[in-house]
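ESCALATION

Customer reports they have been waiting on this structure for their group meeting. Please prioritize. Original submission:
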Amino acid sequence: MRQIQRNLAQMFSPRPRRASLSRVERVYRAEALSLAGEIGATLEPLPGGGQNVWPAPGVYHDPYEGDHYTHDWSEALDRLRVYQPLSRK
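Update from on-call: job pushed to the front of the queue and completed.
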């Protein structure tokens, strides 16, 4: 019975809050989202943290082919700045 209670409590308990971003990371995130919308790139958040950065559909030469994962928002912003001159939007 206790095992069932533990399992039910685990299933229906609220998810733990994600750690909030620092002020600097919020600035990087805002810039990355803005630039991605501007050039037509896609940011794909991943459940474990980090994100994939995909170039705009018109980019023929992807300098990051096969490695689109970024650990944090500053790295994502750096990738988007590389994609910016390559996009045709």
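Sent to customer with the following note: The helical segments are 2-12, 23-39, 73-83.
Escalation resolved.
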